[in-house]
Amino acid sequence: MLIIDSKDCENIDKALKKYKKKFEKSKTLLRLRERQNFTKPSVTRREEVLKAIYKQNIASGKIEK
């Protein structure tokens, strides 16, 4: 549960902005989306490996963005 401490003189827009920022940093929405569909650990690992290979190819200059 996210708790936002707001001062009496602070307006609601600032408090809402703080809440949105805190919510984004907590990554609650990302975790909810991940839980909607189950992906096998082997598939997740394969995606990580392919992403690492892609980044390595960009760094070495084989692929241009």
Q: How do the helices and strands follow one another from N- to C-terminus? A: HHH
Measured distance between first and last alpha carbons:
40 Å
Structural class: mainly alpha
Tally of discrete structural domains: 1
Uncertain spans, ≥5 residues at pLDDT below 50? Answer: none
Strand content: under 5%
Number of helices: 3
The main sheet comes to: none
Helix content: 55-70%
Radius of gyration: 20 Å
Counting DSSP E segments of at least 2 residues, the number of strands comes to 0
* Mean residue pLDDT: 89
Shape annotation: elongated
Keywords, separated by commas or semicolons:
single chain, elongated, 65 residues, Ribosomal_bS21_sf, mainly alpha, structural constituent of ribosome, 3 helices
Layout: helices, strands, pairs:
Blueprint: H1 12-26, H2 28-36, H3 41-60
What does this protein look like?
This protein is mainly alpha-helical and 65 residues long. It has one domain (12-60). Helices cover 68% and strands 0% of the residues. The protein is built from 3 helices and no strands. The chain has helices at residues 12-26, 28-36, 41-60. The termini are far apart.
Summarize the structure.
The protein has 65 residues and is mostly helical.
